[in-house]
Task: inverse folding
């Protein structure tokens, strides 16, 4: 009975007032809806980050609970930035980052361009090509290790078949000059489809009439490619590079399963090195400083890159 | 595209493009096919040189398919004396397979448990992230929230952190709260990681739903909340479903947190699979069998999901 009266009153009043009468205000609902997400992120992302910053100024070791914790200022940061081994890890990461992005952009764009020729059955083949990137990187690393085995592995067999080399004469994972390439190959196999998908979306976003206009102006196909296709796809391509860059800077699971950072420390990317410091040597304070340095690096590089990306988009 | 378009490639171009793409697709599939095949080989065939690749053939390049890898994956076995083996005939077909190596099955392996953990943690965190993500995405999409852009960027930026960087304090936090190596801890953790994707993706889906429907519902006397779950939710169903599958795939594939924060009770399959050891080294057929079983669901989902793939992997930034 009272419900009906309320409804009648509500329908006679202007909407904002009506809403207040029936249940919560929009503003209250907005906060109720957003709060749990923000709370969860604060608890499991931001609070740990602040904790990491605090730990980075101490000599805390997580495996020795009773030990006295000392504030040591910037000593951890100094030690990391002057450590030549860490610069080697940075170099290994840079090598991995640059070459994977280079190959993935090259092959990914070429594939997208070919698929965009709309041959029969291109949807099916696109789906098949996309499969590797949806798989678990750790598990992928694990089975590529099997393919890379020098005597029994399929990879060595196929290379040997085409080059006439002895399949046991080279070890992709065991040789200092080959191991960095072994991780580049697997990452390229896995993530080229990602770049391809984004390029494909870029190619498909170009309206037909632009090419038609170019055709009327008698621009050659090659000229159309360089003055229409490339500039129009560039923002998409740059987005793909951003995503791949951030992901590969964090790279851990695939490489840890594949090479474990070896041989020696030739494929010891920064994340792997960080894990060693934090969870094997248990230098928690030192590793925290290391983590902060990595986070600032990736965040800084990404912000600069996003600025460049926005400039390209505006053009 | 009309057939008169100047951009319709010639038949020859299509043939050329098709051939190259199919060639790439075949090369890209070789490792996966090889792993699936290895799962059905005997340990000796799996490591033979030259490799054996013809199923059921007696020639040098052929191998007889066997379920040994799968049996080894799911069971633990012990070697027994000849007398014991003669006194106790094999109890099942699986037992019969391991008898070839003078062994008997003594119990299940940990693989089933780890697989189940993957399922529980995967579905639990997916449900939670989609539930919270839908609410937040609706609020960001429809209401004026102060600093909305900054909050959205904050949500996204949590993805830029290397997992190992947050793993240190999370490890300490979980240790203090008693959440280490528990399902609940992993579900909360994966939800926190996934929610950024869920919010961004769902916002892009909800933005695409015209506000007129809700306004009509509000005028008809629905409350905001009723309008949300009776009008908006049904229309966002496809978006919610594909977001859910992306969250599920992430949680399913995750390794770094799993290997650092779980050891036994809540360990998922990815850190477990590489530790499967057979007699005299890694048991490749059993590992291959585990890999195949583990990857199969994701492949099926990918094929089902192919239309929504792009949105999912780019946080809704690129729409087809």
Result:
């Amino acid at each position: 009975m009272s419900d009906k009266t309320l409804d009648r009153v509500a329908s006679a009043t202007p909407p904002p007032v009506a809403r207040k009468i029936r249940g919560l205000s929009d503003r209250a609902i907005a906060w109720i809806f957003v709060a749990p997400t923000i709370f969860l992120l604060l608890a499991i992302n931001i609070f740990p980050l602040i904790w990491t910053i605090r730990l980075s100024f101490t000599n805390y070791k997580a495996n020795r609970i009773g030990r006295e914790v000392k504030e040591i200022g910037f000593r951890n940061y100094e030690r990391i930035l002057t450590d030549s081994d860490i610069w080697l890890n940075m170099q290994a990461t840079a090598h991995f980052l640059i070459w994977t992005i280079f190959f993935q952009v090259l092959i990914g764009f070429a594939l997208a361009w070919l698929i965009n020729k709309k041959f029969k059955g291109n949807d099916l083949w696109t789906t098949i090509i996309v499969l590797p990137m949806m798989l678990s990187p750790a598990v992928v690393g694990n089975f590529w290790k099997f393919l890379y085995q020098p005597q029994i592995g399929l990879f060595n067999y196929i290379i040997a078949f085409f080059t006439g080399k002895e399949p046991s004469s080279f070890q992709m994972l065991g040789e200092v000059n080959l191991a960095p390439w072994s991780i580049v190959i697997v990452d390229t196999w896995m993530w080229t489809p990602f770049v391809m998908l984004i390029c494909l979306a870029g190619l498909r976003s170009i309206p037909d009439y632009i090419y038609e206009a170019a055709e009327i102006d008698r621009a050659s196909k090659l000229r159309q490619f360089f003055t229409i296709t490339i500039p129009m796809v560039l923002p998409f391509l740059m987005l793909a590079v951003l995503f791949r860059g951030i992901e590969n800077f964090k790279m851990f699971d695939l490489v840890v399963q594949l090479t474990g950072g070896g041989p020696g420390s030739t494929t010891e990317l920064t994340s792997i090195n960080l894990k060693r410091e934090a969870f094997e040597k248990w230098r928690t304070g030192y590793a925290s400083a290391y983590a902060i340095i990595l986070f600032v690096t990736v965040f800084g590089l990404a912000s600069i890159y996003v600025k460049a990306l926005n400039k390209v988009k505006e053009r | 595209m009309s057939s008169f378009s100047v951009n319709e490639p010639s038949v020859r171009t299509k043939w050329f493009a098709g051939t190259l793409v199919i060639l790439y697709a075949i090369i890209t599939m070789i490792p996966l096919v090889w792993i699936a095949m290895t799962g059905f080989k005997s340990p000796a065939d799996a490591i033979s040189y030259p490799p054996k690749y013809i199923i059921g053939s007696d020639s040098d390049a052929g191998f007889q398919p066997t379920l040994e890898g799968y049996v080894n994956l799911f069971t633990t076995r012990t070697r027994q004396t000849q007398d014991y083996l003669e006194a106790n005939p094999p109890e099942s077909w699986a037992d019969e397979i391991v008898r070839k190596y003078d062994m008997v099955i003594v119990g299940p392996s940990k693989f089933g448990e780890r697989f189940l953990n993957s399922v529980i943690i995967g579905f639990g965190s997916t449900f939670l992230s989609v539930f919270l993500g839908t609410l937040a995405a609706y609020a960001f999409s429809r209401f004026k929230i102060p600093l909305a852009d900054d909050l959205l960027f904050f949500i996204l930026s949590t993805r830029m952190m290397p997992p190992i960087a947050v793993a240190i304090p999370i490890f300490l936090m979980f240790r203090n709260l008693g959440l280490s190596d528990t399902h609940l801890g992993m579900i909360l953790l994966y939800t926190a990681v996934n929610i950024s994707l869920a919010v961004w993706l769902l916002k892009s889906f909800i933005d695409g739903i015209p506000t007129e429907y809700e306004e009509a519902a509000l005028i008809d006397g629905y409350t905001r909340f009723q309008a949300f779950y009776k009008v908006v939710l049904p229309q966002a169903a496809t978006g919610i479903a594909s977001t859910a599958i992306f969250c599920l795939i992430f949680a399913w594939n995750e390794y770094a947190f799993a290997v650092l924060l779980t050891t036994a009770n809540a360990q998922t399959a990815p850190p477990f699979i590489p530790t499967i050891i057979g007699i005299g080294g890694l048991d490749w057929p059993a590992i291959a069998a585990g890999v195949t079983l583990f990857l199969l669901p994701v492949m099926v989902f990918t094929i089902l999901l192919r239309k929504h793939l792009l949105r999912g992997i780019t946080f809704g930034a690129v729409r087809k």
Q: What stands out?
A: The longest helix of chain A spans residues 84-115. Residues 79-314 of chain A form a domain with the MetI-like fold fold (CATH 1.10.3720.10). The mean pLDDT of chain A is 86.
